[in-house]
Write the structure tokens for this entry.
Amino acid sequence: MYADDLVIAAHSEEELEALLLRLERATKRWGLTISPTKTKHLPGYFVPSDTPPPQLPIGDGAVVERVESFPYLGSVLMTGSSLSAEVSLRISRAAISFHRLRNAVWKLPGLSLRTKLQVFSATVIPSLLYACETWTPLVEHLRRLETFRLACLRSILGLTRLDCVRSSQILERSGQSPIGEHLRQARLRWLGHVARMPSHRMPKQLLFGRIEGARRARHGLEKRWSDVVQEDVELSGLADDWYQRCQDRPQWRRLVKDATGQLEAVALQQQRRAEERRSQQRAERRVAKAQQVGTVGGTGGASASHLGHLGQSTSGTWVCPVTSCQRAFDTSRGLKVHLAWHKHRGDVTAT
């Protein structure tokens, strides 16, 4: 029996103390001991920091420590419902898996891109999205996961940020779907798995059970998993008789795959439109700012050594000397980095 394999749940501190003593007596009869340093007390509700912890005795005079989070079977259990710690853990684990294969797979010249992407989907993605079927993520969490995955895909494709390849194009080249669709497909599959369970199983009772007489407040509440998966079912077009349809496991998997595939195409199209809109807005802002501060430089390409000879406007703004760009910067350092990007593309001649 390992320390992270056993969880004791109780409704009160007194009941928890009694169960802990019974467990300790039972382990001693078999010659086992409980590690006081590895045993933690995690409340299932919010506890103010100034509240004294309960004195739960364990071992020879030791007391169980109260914590706000605890790693259990690869995931992070927390007192609250925030996913920030879980997302940070998943990104760190996936980063370790990715960097271990950097020289053996990603930088291996004789290996095809298709094989590299298959290894990426089989090793890094499971570490990144472990237990994601039970998440209720926010936009911030999806953004962090997507940012990490795009950084990995750029490295596999041999791209850098100086190449200015859009995120939607990276996903299309690698054959990957948006991270939100990965999570939606996992939640729908888990929904079907729970619905097929016998009625006495606790996951099914928690999903379909309701507290009699309990009413939630109207504003400021966090989304429950049932709320998120209900939106998934409605967006996927599976709201009609989903409970009967998910009883056939192969059929439900096909339905989920087809529905999420259609949503994936729509999500990629929306992402491309959003990227084009942001690019157009940035270009309009650059033109407006350049017109405001005036133009500086010659007519055509520029040399990286010209930076020291560029004039500075009265408003303290530096302007790119490339006529087709003329982007404005607040500092000379920003203009230096920008000229390095032009040099990478061949617009700037090194002298």
